[in-house]
Design brief:
Layout (H helix, E strand, L loop, with lengths): L2 H22 L8 H13 L6 E5 L9 E7 L5 E7 L13 E3 L2 E3 L3 H19 L7 E7 L12 H4 L4 E4 L4 E2 L5 E7 L1 E10 L3 E2 L10 H14 L10 E9 L5 E2 L2 E10 L4 H7 L4 E2 L2 E11 L2 E2 L1 H15 L4 E5 L5 H5 L5 E2 L6 E2 L7 E3 L2 H16 L3
Parallel strand pairs: 3-6, 3-7, 7-19, 9-18
Antiparallel strand pairs: 1-2, 2-6, 4-5, 5-21, 8-9, 9-17, 10-14, 10-16, 11-13, 12-14, 15-16, 20-21
């Protein structure tokens, strides 16, 4: 392993559990301004002393501003480090960090506060090598989990040499440390049902049942689920609301479904499969979120060869179905690498965790990739 990579990865891992504890201690569900501000303050305190800090408007209205930390160097090359501070865990279910065996368990630990801690460590390590770059920036957003608005930061960094995103890391089937170079497109489909309310006891047949219409819509969405098909489409109904009282035919309601595919055009097939009406209740679909896919395979091959040499072992390219802000940058920054965070699991669940022993290894992977990106 390269000496700088080995030394700095150990220093990052030494500090990481305490820094992660401080960051996970803040409950920061997406959209919560106070939690986002607290997280931004913690992260600002962990940036290098000479970093220039900037708060810029978030892509989503009524959210706290996003945080950018910049380092100016005397060399060439510009790389962007990327992460998010928001979680999907509500305040009432928040868990501060706790150690259980080899795991550090806590809300948002793997998605993605563990990765944020590593990105801050990489930024500090690079601060000592200003001759290696013209500029390094760390962008931390606070709306990744629930954003439906257009992503506003792409133009700010378009044309930079590399984008490195710190979503959770993984090993491949052969046990090699991996990074993500392919991601599916992601879509959120909302279907509204418009029926007619009626007394469910004395006049049920006068109603037009929105709940039954949405149930049919949910079945239609699920019927398009084809993860082994040509587009690897997953179509999953996730949320449904209809009705306000037990004795009233529901007159309106809403269904939300999550979709992922190699090509966003596959989402159109799901919309086309929906019936226009069921039992007199009409269905009105709307795509409220479409995120692009990402495939930087051909642009990252040489980078990963150089990074593997610095790491001392193969760093393997991988694909992942989950969405990430890296996908928004991939078209504007062809050398985009994701999955640089620590290994862990149970993202979006109460038992979310990272593997503590992976902190040093994954810090080394991230440092090796960053070094490789600056040595093109």
């Amino acid at each position: 392993m390269d000496d700088w990579v080995a030394k700095c990865s150990q220093e990052i891992a030494r500090r990481a559990p305490r820094e992660l504890e401080a960051l996970v201690a803040v409950s920061s569900p997406s959209g919560d301004r106070h939690g986002a501000e607290e997280c931004a303050s913690v992260c600002a305190a962990l940036t290098p002393d000479d970093a220039q800090l900037e708060r810029v408007p978030c892509s989503s209205p009524n959210h706290a501003d996003d945080l950018i930390a910049r380092l100016a160097g005397t060399g060439e090359g510009r790389i962007l480090l990327l992460g998010h501070l928001d979680t999907v865990i509500a305040h009432a279910a928040h868990r501060p960090l706790a150690r259980e065996g080899e795991k550090l368990i806590g809300s948002g630990s793997v998605d993605m506060k563990g990765g944020v801690v590593l990105s801050l460590g990489v930024l500090r390590a690079l601060a000592a090598r200003p001759q290696d770059y013209a500029e390094v920036a760390l962008l931390l957003v606070c709306d990744e989990e629930w954003r439906t608005a257009p992503f506003s930061h792409t133009e700010r960094f378009a044309g930079w040499d590399a984008c490195l995103c710190f979503e959770g890391g993984a090993r491949n089937a052969d046990g090699q440390e991996g990074v993500v170079v392919r991601r599916k497109a992601a879509g959120t489909l909302k279907v509204k049902a418009r029926g007619r309310a009626a007394h469910s006891g004395s006049a049920p047949d006068r109603g037009r049942n929105a709940l039954l219409a949405l149930a049919a819509a949910a079945q239609a969405v699920a019927g398009c689920h084809d993860p082994d098909g040509p587009d690897h489409l997953t179509a999953v109904p996730t949320v449904m609301h209809a009705g306000d009282a037990f004795n009233v035919v529901p007159g309106a309601g809403e269904l939300v479904s999550d979709m992922r595919a190699d090509d966003a055009a596959a989402f159109e097939r799901v919309v086309a499969a929906l019936p226009a009406e069921v039992g007199g209740a009409t269905l009105h679909p709307e795509m409220v979120r479409v995120w692009p896919g990402m495939d930087s395979t051909e642009h990252t091959g040489a980078l990963l060869e150089r990074a593997s040499a610095a790491f001392g072992e193969t760093i393997a390219p991988m694909r992942r179905g989950g969405a990430s802000d890296a996908s928004h940058f991939a078209a504007a920054i062809p050398v985009t690498v994701d999955g640089l965070g620590p290994r862990g699991g149970a993202a979006h669940n109460p038992d979310e965790y990272i593997v503590e022993a992976s902190l040093a290894t994954r810090a080394a992977v991230a440092l090796a990739v960053a070094q490789a990106a600056l040595s093109r």
